[in-house]
Specification:
The complex is a heterodimer of chains A (314) and B (123).
Chain A lengths: L12 H7 L8 H26 L2 H62 L5 H32 L8 E3 L1 H18 L3 E6 L6 E3 L1 H17 L6 E9 L2 E8 L20 H5 L8 H10 L4 E7 L3 E9 L3
Helix pairs in contact in A: 2-3, 3-4, 4-8, 5-6, 6-8
Chain B lengths: L5 E5 L3 H11 L4 E5 L2 H11 L3 E4 L8 H9 L9 E5 L4 H9 L4 E4 L5 H11 L2
Parallel strand pairs in B: 1-2, 1-3, 3-4, 4-5
Helix pairs in contact in B: 2-3
The chains are: A alpha+beta (314), B alpha/beta (123).
Chain lengths: 314, 123
């Protein structure tokens, strides 16, 4: 039997704390042992001091100092438990968001398949159901890819390719995938790429994920009949890609938090928009990991502009 | 021939909406809305015999739509089937307080079962 898994393993405090990714001073097990040691040491020390000096003021001072010290350790223990409770609450909220987000496409696929099996469904209806199944399957796959990517980013396990590719062609590919959504929302898309745009160097698939998220946000949060402007130009030894919408924008007090993991703006709730809250987090991280820069500007009620840069091949 | 009973479906996922409509349209006159505001307006205009309502909707949530229609004398007794993937005790209780008797979780029900429940409610 591996010693690490033995019955003595809980006594290996350092390993136990590392298991939960906690530093020693955030780890309840360590803090409890520290507090216990301080209590034992202080009782012994007080006994010897009191025996030698028999001075009531000195004993009171020692007791005061020990109490203060124990109070500080107690504070850290409480904080450590608060953090654990918060992590547990976040986990539960996360499961709730994820399960709701995944259940929608799964339900649509389930019902679509039922319709396909039903007698009397004609060829035209079948084609339309296949189209719906395809789009829901794509939605599901995107959500799973996002979760997987967020986990890889957090654990620093993301794999990147560094190859030259055309940002213009990539943007066209993503725009084609979104054409039904932009048409349904009656949005007008303006696409302007400078003719001398050099190829970007980075990971094609990860950059595709970023563009998909940024375009999805621009479509989701836009006003019906609004504009989306996409531009790309050379900026020094980088390519600068930008998307602007005329949507609901981001409240000023949320600007600093918007690219945090699982963060959803109050406007996302107000307008009841679906999402995992991973899009901007992943965009920022995936661009950063490709030696690029990511940024945005937004005014509530007027719209948002998101941009990123990537190194160029030239 | 008797006039078909009317159903308003308020569902923002257009794929789910189309699938539901396809399953119900042979027996009922189905009206569709993709957001809460349009749904509420449609309910007021058509005075349906039954409402199928999602809870997480753009513009106005299903809870708010429910609250508004329950305040109207001609709609306060209209049967509402809540059809959602939100499976939280709070949500169920909230809709129960607003007179909802049928709360269905999309992922747990087959399309056929939903059609059956709707038909039985309107019998």
């Amino acid at each position: 039997m591996n010693e690490k898994d033995g019955f003595l393993s809980p006594l290996n405090i350092k390993a136990e704390c590392e298991k939960y990714e906690l530093s020693l001073f955030e780890c309840p097990q360590f803090l409890f042992i520290l507090m216990g040691s301080v209590i034992i040491a202080s009782i012994i020390a007080t006994y010897f001091v009191a025996k030698k000096y028999a001075d009531i003021e000195l004993a009171a001072l020692i007791a005061l100092a020990i109490t203060a010290f124990l109070f500080i350790i107690g504070f850290f223990i409480t904080r450590a438990f608060e953090k654990l409770a918060e992590a547990s609450k976040m986990k539960s909220e996360f499961i709730s968001i994820v399960s709701h987000h995944l259940r929608e496409p799964v339900s649509a696929i389930k019902w679509g398949l039922e319709l396909l099996e039903k007698e009397g469904t004609n060829e035209e209806e079948k084609r339309s159901i296949y189209g719906r199944l395809k789009s829901q399957n794509q939605k599901l796959l995107r959500a799973l890819n996002d979760l997987n990517e967020a986990n890889n980013v957090q654990n620093k396990k993301t794999r990147f390719e560094r190859k030259p590719f055309s940002l213009e062609k990539l943007t066209q590919v993503v725009l084609n995938d979104f054409s039904s959504q932009t048409e349904a929302a009656n949005l007008s898309l303006n696409f302007k790429f400078s003719p001398d745009l050099p190829p970007a160097i980075g990971d094609y698939k990860k950059t595709q994920m970023v563009i998909e998220h940024l375009l999805n946000n621009a479509v989701t949060y836009n006003q019906p009949g609004g504009n989306i402007d996409i531009t790309a130009e050379k900026s020094g030894n980088r390519v600068l890609w930008r998307i602007e919408d005329q949507g609901v924008g981001i409240p000023e007090n949320e600007l600093s938090k918007i690219s945090g993991k699982f963060f959803r703006s109050k406007n996302a709730y107000r307008y009841q928009k679906p999402g995992l809250g991973l899009g901007l987090y992943l965009s920022k991280e995936l661009i950063g990991l490709q030696n690029g820069k990511f940024g945005f500007h937004s005014t509530e009620g007027k719209g948002s502009s998101f941009w990123f840069t990537l190194p160029t091949a030239l | 021939m008797a006039e078909k009973k009317k159903i308003v479906i308020v569902e923002d996922d257009t794929d789910l909406q189309k699938t539901l409509t396809k399953s119900l349209s042979s027996d009922f006159a189905v009206f569709e809305a993709s957001d809460g505001e349009t749904g509420e307006r449609m309910i007021e205009e058509t005075k349906p015999d039954l409402i199928i309502l999602d809870l997480i909707l753009p513009q106005k949530s299903g809870f708010d739509v429910l609250k508004s229609i329950r305040e109207k004398s001609d709609l306060k007794n209209t049967p509402v089937v809540v059809l959602t993937n939100l499976e939280e005790k709070n949500a169920v209780e909230k809709t129960l307080m607003l007179g909802v008797k049928i709360y269905l979780v999309k992922a747990l029900y087959a399309l056929e079962e939903i059609v059956e429940i709707v038909k039985n409610t309107l019998k």
